[in-house]
# Entry
Amino acid sequence: MIVDFHSHVIVGDASPPPSMVGAFSDTAAIVEEAQRAGIDHVVLAPWVRLLDTVDNEALFALRSDRISVLGAVPLHDPQRAAEVVRGLPGVEIPASVDGDYLGHDRFEPFWTAAEETGAVVFIHPTTRAFDWPDYYLWNTVGNPFETTITAAHMVMAGVMERHPGLRVVLAHGGGALPALRGRLRHAHEAIGAAKERLREAPEASIKRFYFDTVTHDPAVLRALAEFAGADHIVLGTDHPFDMGDPDPVATVRAAGLDPHRLGETALELLA
# Structure
C-alpha cells in the first residue's frame, strides 16, 4: 500500500484561504486526488497554523479505510499535552512554542507520554517563524530551517537518546539536519557542546528520527535514505500547498526507493 504521511486538512469552523477551500476540507476530493497520484491511503494532519484550535473529535471522525489522522495537543501546556497524547495514536506538533524549541525541558512530560504510549509525533514548521527577504525564501528556506533547528535542539538536549522509544517524523526531509551532522558532531566532541546532556554521537540521535520525502530532489532523498535507512522514510505530498510534491511516487522511485515499503513504515508508525 502506498501511503501519504504528510497531507493537511481543516475541520470545524476554521476557514482556509478562499482559493483552497475544497483542497483543505473536502476529504472525498483529497482521496480522489491521492488516488490519481497513485496513493492508496492518506494521513491527514491539521493545518499547522490552526493546531491550537483543532477539535480532535471532529478530526478523528474523518477516519476511514483510506484516511488516517493525526490529532493535536495543547503543547503550550506540556502537562495537559501529555494527558491528551495518551488517548491518541498520533499527533502533529509545531516546531516551536512561545519561542521555545522542542528540546526545552518544559516539554519533557509530553515526550515521556509519547514514548510510553507509542504515539507517533509529526513535527511541522510553524511557517513564517523567521523574517526572510523575498523570493519565497520564508517557505523554501525558512520552513525546513525551523525544522532543522528544533530537531538539532532535541538531539543536543538528549531528548532522542533519553527516549529511545520515541517515534518522531520530521517534515520536509528533516530540513538540513542530516547535512549538518558533521558540524553537530564536531561541536559535541571537540568543543564539548551538550556533553552533559548527550552521551551518544549526535548522528546516532539523528538516525532515531523518521523523515518524509518532501525534498523535491531524488538525489537528496537518496542520500537521506542512505544515511537514515529506507525504513525511516515515509512518503509525503504536503497537500494542498504549492510547495507540495505533485508526483511523490515518481520522486520516490527516482531515488531508488520502493513506495510500498515506505507505506509499510507509515502504517507501522500508526499501528
Observations:
- The chain is about 40% helix and 15% strand.
- The longest helix spans residues 142-156.
- Residues 155 and 205 are 6 Å apart (CA to CA).
- The chain has a mean pLDDT of 94.
